[in-house]
Design goal:
Layout (H helix, E strand, L loop, with lengths): L23 E12 L6 E7 L2 E6 L6 E5 L6 E6 L6 E7 L2 E6 L4 E6 L5 E6 L7 E3 L4 E4 L4 E5 L5 E6 L1 E2 L2 E2 L3 E7 L2 E6 L4 E5 L6 E6 L16 E6 L5 E5 L4 E9 L1
Parallel strand pairs: 1-19
Antiparallel strand pairs: 1-22, 2-3, 3-4, 4-5, 6-7, 7-8, 8-9, 10-11, 11-12, 12-13, 14-15, 16-17, 17-18, 18-19, 20-21, 21-22
Length: about 250
């Protein structure tokens, strides 16, 4: 989320509570680097068909854009009123959903034309947003995932746990191969969650992904997970100059 919130929990790999299955520990291997707009305070990142989409936050800086992967430049861009702090975003069905942080609204657009359709009430903070193709899946900075229908009605709320303990600060989300990947805000850790029971099946250590020499005083935390139609996984962060295609390797 943003710079001034409290520090997130420290994650430890352990045996999942109630199960003999050990939590897997991964680190990332960089396959390729791409430019990323260093002015983008990345909140949501996803592919839909062949297009890369990104939503960015901060009051007075919030945008939603289509992005050229090869150059990092915005192809199209929507700017929001400075009173809105934009968060996660996703296309589900025929609609584009864009969360706000504390404004308690979700913006709804036509996915094909990006024409405005409605502003919907939202009863909690907006952080991350993704879909499994059947429902929306959202985070609010707590240890819960919210499974919602197209009208934002919560069908199920699932607590996320690691070794039986709640994992707080769940942030940007991506649905990959039947699992929910979540950035844990203020850490360099991604957790891979079984959406059926909320148990963390694996942790991904992203420390050092953006090298020290690439960082500036404005560089913020890891945030941004996207998977394309070919299964390639991409990671970036807030105000990062690079986006990385990565694969997982065992620690």
């Amino acid at each position: 989320m943003r710079k001034f919130l409290f520090i997130g929990c420290i994650l430890l790999a352990a045996v999942s509570c109630g199960s003999s299955k050990k939590v897997r520990d991964y680190k990332v291997k960089v396959i390729r680097e791409y430019p990323h707009d260093v002015t983008s305070y990345t909140q949501g990142l996803f592919f839909h068909r062949d297009t890369l989409y990104e939503s960015t936050g901060q009051l007075g800086e919030s945008t939603f854009r289509t992005v050229d992967l090869e150059t990092g430049e915005a192809i199209t861009r929507m700017d929001f009123s400075r009173k809105y702090f934009i968060e996660g975003s996703v296309i589900f069905g025929d609609n584009l959903y864009i969360l706000t942080w504390t404004n308690r609204v979700v913006f709804l657009y036509d996915a094909a034309t990006r024409q405005y359709k409605a502003t919907l009430s939202y009863p909690r903070e907006g952080w991350g947003l993704t879909t499994d193709g059947k429902q929306l899946i959202a985070s609010d900075g707590s240890s819960f995932l919210y499974f919602m229908d197209a009208d934002l009605n919560v069908q199920r709320r699932q607590r996320v746990t690691l070794d039986g303990k709640s994992v707080r600060n769940l942030n940007e989300l991506e649905y990959i191969d039947g699992k929910v990947w979540a950035n844990v805000y203020t850490t360099d850790t991604i957790v891979i969650i079984d959406p059926a029971d909320g148990k963390v099946e694996a942790t991904v250590d992203c420390r050092g992904l953006l090298p020290y020499q690439e960082r500036t005083a404005d560089t913020d935390v890891l945030n941004g997970i996207a998977v394309d139609k070919d299964g390639r996984i991409f990671l970036t962060g807030k105000y990062w100059p690079k986006m990385y295609e990565i694969e997982l390797v065992k620690k």
